[in-house]
Design brief:
Layout: H1 15-25, E1 31-32, E2 35-36, H2 53-68, E3 91-97, H3 105-112, E4 118-126, E5 129-136, H4 139-149, E6 153-155, E7 158-165, E8 180-182, E9 248-252, H5 261-268, E10 274-279, E11 287-291, H6 294-304, E12 308-309, E13 312-313, E14 315-318, E15 337-339, E16 365-369, H7 377-386, E17 391-396, E18 404-408, H8 411-421, E19 433-436
Antiparallel strand pairs: 1-2, 3-5, 3-7, 4-5, 4-8, 6-7, 9-11, 9-14, 10-11, 10-15, 12-13, 16-18, 16-19, 17-18
Helix pairs in contact: 5-8
Length: 441
Amino acid sequence: MLKGKSQAFLEMASEEAAVTMVNYYTPVTPHLRSQPVFIQYSNHRELKTDNLPNQRAQAALQAVSAVQSGSLALPGAPANEGTVLPGQSPVLRIIIENLFYPVTLEVLHQIFSKFGTVLKIITFTKNNQFQALLQYADPLNAHYAKMALDGQNIYNACCTLRIDFSKLTSLNVKYNNDKSRDFTRLDLPTGDGQPSLEPPMAFAENTNSLSVPAGLGPGALGPLAITSSAVTGRMAIPGAGGIPGNSVLLVTNLNPDLITPHGLFILFGVYGDVHRVKIMFNKKENALVQMADANQAQLAMNHLSGQRLYGKVLRATLSKHQAVQLPREGQEDQGLTKDFSNSPLHRFKKPGSKNFQNIFPPSATLHLSNIPPSVTVDDLKNLFTEAGCSVKAFKFFQKDRKMALIQLGSVEEAIQALIELHNHDLGENHHLRVSFSKSTI
């Protein structure tokens, strides 16, 4: 434990166990005494402990087992904390007071997902107040979210959350659009042309770059800096070695024989627009990846750190550098630094692009799109087999044969296939689009 820092190191028995733990807790933040806890990899390979504190550790362990057996109350914990009242709803009613900046459905999803799986959200305006109903998978998540977020500000000194439990126990969402969304059903219509409830505010340009910090401090869930071109966020993960709110990632433990700047550009480009990549000249297993903003850097870090790529477990953390420098004239670089800021392959150029809604963790099933009519099942299976993948299942979308799902032998295979085959020329002026899917076949 680090004294006075609210931080600790934890050494697992193996690297696999550490990867499993981080991957498990990245999408669903764990809570200790209703406080969200953030887990990431350390730069230390092992912990050195002196033996004296072992006796203290033994005493602490005995105290913990006493708590678990119910024979001891935790100091400072109210007796009913963490227990859910019978019949408590998994649906929260959220009122946002002092709405100085627009709050989108995506922003609410991002904030509330820190406390568990959000199934549905409906936003509306009632009595001149912007409100939302939000349904969790589990009432316990709703309980924790209410305890942690009620009375917090989303941005400095404004957009205050007032949260209570709804009398509804389930929400009925008819349309997936910017007012309502059922995250369990991607097949719902957008319901364009329906008389929509009045919008909470004119949306600022590119509100998708709004980001919500992971460390919920007192007062604001911010500080979120409001810039003129967009509302961008500063994220602070407690204990990260890099600069909070930085858009540059340090990526380590790469396979130096197989990794290229273009490969990192394609992979990190699933989670945001990559502007520059630099593979270190003297240490080619390390690279810097500069994203368009801090939110995208955070997304890429959360989803990619701990994934296997070319046989090695990739690590991503916030860098101490705020930008990737291009090599000076005449400086030897071997093509290791590349500027992609004007690449036509950016997925998130358009504000409000559908791609923002289809960001999923790496998975063995890939979503393929932009397939020309002449390309058959066998053509696509062969394409992936030639790239060294084992194809487990394949299916075209019924309504739209421009799209398909392909299931490969492992997540690592899918990551490598995405790097190799995204933007592959299928002829007839069609380039294959590849992304991770949350569906399985």
